[in-house]
């Protein structure tokens, strides 16, 4: 995943094309990617989650956010990507753009509950006061 992101940043679309799975290599439009690259400033990659993909695995997934700037506006590309090993090399198989995110669960603290900071005081007499 990181090598594909770096290839996008550097404009190395041969690497991007070569790291597609065989059955989808013809779906990559290299000239369109090059045209878009000229107007894109890449700002960073954040790997959010990985499953499998280790030395003994044949498949793996990566959920990531890539931030970039186009036309003066900052954007985020979130994707859940599926990879597999072909001839010993990891290749991109498929991805889901903007996968759903688990909502945050917030626990409400009552005024008379013990303060979560661990002081031993009631919340209303400590951090909630």
Word description of this protein:
This protein has about 130 residues and is α+β, with helices and mostly antiparallel strands. The longest helix has 9 residues, at about 1-10. It has helices at about 1-10, 15-20, 30-35; strands at about 40-50, 60-70, 75-85, 90-95. The radius of gyration is 22 Å and the shape is elongated. A four-stranded antiparallel β-sheet has the order 1-2-3-4, with helices on one face. It contains three helices and four strands.
The chain-level mean pLDDT equals: 92
Main pleated-sheet profile: 4 strands, antiparallel
Overall spatial form: elongated
**Total number of strands:** 4
> In oligomeric terms, what are we looking at?
single chain
What share of the residues lie within helices? 10-25%
Notable features of this structure?
3 helices, alpha+beta, four-stranded antiparallel beta sheet, 129 residues, 4 strands
Secondary structure layout plus pairing:
Blueprint: H1 2-10, H2 13-18, H3 30-37, E1 40-52, E2 59-70, E3 73-86, E4 89-97
Antiparallel strand pairs: 1-2, 2-3, 3-4
In short:
This protein has 129 residues and is of the alpha+beta class.
